Known about the structure:
The complex is a heterodimer.
Chain A: E1 2-3, E2 7-8, E3 14-16, E4 22-27, E5 30-35, E6 41-46, E7 53-56, E8 62-67, E9 72-77, E10 84-88, E11 96-99, E12 105-109, E13 115-120, E14 126-130, E15 139-141, E16 147-154, E17 157-164, E18 169-175, E19 183-186, E20 192-196, E21 204-208, E22 213-217, E23 226-231, E24 237-242, E25 246-251, E26 257-262, E27 266-267, E28 273-280, E29 305-311, E30 315-316, E31 333-338, E32 344-349, E33 355-360, E34 365-371, E35 378-381, E36 388-391, E37 396-401, E38 404-409, E39 420-423, E40 429-433, E41 437-442
Parallel strand pairs in A: 28-34
Antiparallel strand pairs in A: 1-41, 2-41, 3-4, 4-5, 5-6, 7-8, 8-9, 9-10, 11-12, 12-13, 13-14, 15-16, 16-17, 17-18, 19-20, 20-21, 21-22, 23-24, 24-25, 25-26, 27-30, 28-29, 31-32, 32-33, 33-34, 35-36, 36-37, 37-38, 39-40, 40-41
Chain B: H1 2-22, H2 31-41, H3 46-57, H4 63-77, H5 93-214, E1 222-225, H6 242-288, H7 296-302, H8 304-324, H9 329-362, H10 373-406, H11 411-480, H12 485-495, H13 499-511, H14 513-516, H15 521-536, H16 541-564
Helix pairs in contact in B: 1-2, 1-3, 6-9, 8-9, 11-15, 11-16, 15-16
Amino acid sequence: MNFSEVFKLSSLLCKFSPDGKYLASCVQYRLIVRDVNNLQILQLYTCLDQIQYIEWSSDSLFILCAMYKRGIVQVWSLEQPDWHCKIDEGSAGLVASCWSPDGRHILNTTEFYLRITVWSLCTKSVSYIKYPKACQNGIAFTKDGRYMALAERRDCKDFISLFVCSDWQLLRHFDTETQDLSGIEWAPNGCVLAVWDTCLEYKILLYSLDGRLLSTYSAYEWSLGIKSVAWSPSSQFLAIGSYDEKVRILNHVTWKKITEFEHPATIANPKIIVYKEMEKSPRVETESLAFPPARAQASSLFSTQSKYDISQVPVSLQYVKPVADRANPRIGIGMLAFSPDNCFLATKNDNIPNAIWIWDVQKLKLFVVLEQLYAVQLFQWDPHQPRLAICTGNSKVYLWSPAGCVSVQVPMEGDFQVLSLCWHSSGDSMALLSKDNFCMCYLEREEVK
Amino acid sequence: MGDWKTITVPALSSEKKNRSTCGTSEKKMSPSSLNMQQVLRSPLPLSKSMHSFFSAFCTEENVEQSISYLNRELTTLGFPSLYSECKDKELNVVSVLNCMNELLVLQRKNLRAQEEVEIQHLKLGSDMDHLQNCYAKVKEQLETSRREIVGLQERDRQQQCKHRNLHQLLKNEKDEVQKLQNIIASRATQYNHDMKRKEREYNKLKERLHQLVMNKKDKKIAMDVLNYVGRVDGKRGAWRTGKTEARNEEEMYKVLLGGYEQRQKQLLVENAELKKVLQQMKKEMISLLPPQKQKPKERAEDGIGPVLSDMEEDAVELNKENMWELSCETVREQLTNSIRKQWRMLKNHVEKLDNQVSRAHSGALNGSDVISREDHELETEKLELEIQQCKEMIKTQQQLLQQQLMSPCDDDTSMLLQDCYLLEERERLQEEWKLFREQKKNFERERRSFTEAAIRLGLERKAFEEDRGAWLKQQFLSMTSDHKNSEHVKTQSAYSGSSDPDNQLMNFRSRQKKPHCLPSVPPSEELCQTIQHIPHNSNSSVVLNKTTEDSKPKQWKGLNKAETE
């Protein structure tokens, strides 16, 4: 594993281009495009204000930079550095901005979710979509980029509009039986749209591409409901993580639950491997300590090593009791991700923030539990193999694969706290992001030990 | 005192009347005491009876004897002697009187004591009665109170049970209430949070609106582009028409259908695999079960006979169905039913075996069905030995395998190994190819023969048609010009070569006129005949027939085959 040198970064804005050749990063109001292999600066663009969001177009020719405070989106071209484009939303304000799948339209969500403006880079036409829904994932594109689903809300009722991306024709418009829609997601095969309700009501609805309601699923009433949703890459399974610390898997044939995964604090089954991260401080002779030393000691002064140890079952994990009278409590399954080969599902239970649970999808059983020293910030699967990269906010990055797991210290001078990471589309390298810097990590081809 | 009694008894009988006038009923006491009582109770009228009584014991004759007797008795009782001290046989009146007084006193004392005793006795008797009554009453009370206690205990127990149940229910209800309260609380906080968020946004909106209303100079909403970019696919944008809308709809449905078709394919493949597995299972189950002939007894018992034949029928049917891969309801039901039946039979069989084994263990030897204990043990020993041997073999195999793997297997050896495997596979494939080629040749040969036969048939048919045409022409000619027989003969002779057989042939043909109209089979018969007739040129039509019939079967079959093909 090779690490590159550290570069400046702000707001964790660092993205690989879809074709895998370039890496775009932001430093305040400047956008820097580098070559992925040697990290040399290829282009440098200057925007009008501090950049809050960047996105590559699907053909890797353009990058959009959104500045929400000023309400401006600037688009830069890689082929022609002189080309410029500035979209000013003016008094309408700007809350979100994204590309359309063809890479020639930009969808701006104005302030207060008043409307979505579709700006075309090819023609002079501007389209407006009224009454978009004010939620996190209100816009969803199918994987092949043909259709777009948009959540709307009119007269206190939720609707879904399906558009054809090529000419923005409204294909279907139907209402949903949700109280307060909180997210939509297409299945990878583009035929089914999952729509789920607010966390106060456990309800997920499945619509077919032509707007028919295929099925409804509700596991229980009254208690807090769905927290996270993930489709399997083959569209066979839909994993729903909820506030009751369980993941329920629905199958695509009958849309009924085939199994549910529990996340208890004690693991007793001897068939499950539990990897526990242990600090290896050079002072202490023995290999492992039960609890880590204080954070100050764990800084790079000592460059403490850590390694994984297999814990003997039964293992009792660190359980955090949630604060009862807070809204959006930190309980339940907050993160869900399927591996790209559809063999594994990685989940994180916010009640046990230090652990990652890896489930075997073929056998529908718990396979591995990784117990970290610190709370897991982010995990992401390698786009090609069943390899999971994890960061917990300290200066190490962790990798797990069915062959084993390893913890790697990022060899930087000073404090480099890995807050986020993203894989390169080939799976050979990844970018590790901290608050002010980022670095590239190149992985070797052979298997991780 | 015995003597006294014997003496006084005869006298008593005469005194009975007297006594009865006194009214005493006491028979227990001795007669003397009775008399004494009489004396005590009613002294006056007793003087007469006294006289008579006393005269019974002592009369004038036996005075001395009675005195001596009395003296003897009194001295034995401890009284002083009746005789005087100085002179013998002289009555001491003083001592007599004293003795009498003493006796009276004694008698009085005894009577008193007796009275007291009797009174006490009476008292005790009544006390006893009283106590017995009391005891009976108390016992009854005890019984009733015991029964009451038992009843109360029972009630108490029931009440305790009820109490416990109610307590449990109360606890459950409390838990549920608590849970619901928690849920309500969390929902309330969520609602409040959302409400606050919405209110904040609303406030922002109000401010913005206010700002906009106040602000005269409106910031222009515009896009400033250096130059417009071409589309991804290089074409120009198209107008949105009804046609494009329809096309979009069509495309959407195509996508959906594609997804469904793929899914259906997957499901079909899965179904076929599962059906195959089930079929295999069924076959294996059938093979596991004991065959029909060996156990006719069981057939009678279980009625397997008709079922098995049904099974076989089903199997044949299902095999047929499988070839065409139908997935209709009935096939599925048949398969599942047949498997269920087989499974039941297998289960019965296994249960029977279990019973047999258990019976053998318990020691009951019932003929040849049950294995004796020693045999059983021998078998188990043998099996254990076998198991041991197998295990050892497996171990050695494992070791060898490990050695192979562990040995520095460089590329060459691994390649060689791979080659070996490949060679084996190649040889196998070659053999299979040979077989395949042979089969192919056979098929080719047969096909060729069939085609030849078909060609021949075609040719024959053509020739026959020609013949028929010619014959019809001749017939027509013969009909029109009947007197021109010679011409006929000529023509026919030109055709065949001799007159007599020609006539016969004519007759034959006229007779054969009708069969003309029959289906293809007889015409070919005729055809054969005519063809055979021409080269052979024999005289008798019977012989003709025979020859044709001889050659017919061979050609027949070929033709038939050709036709059916």
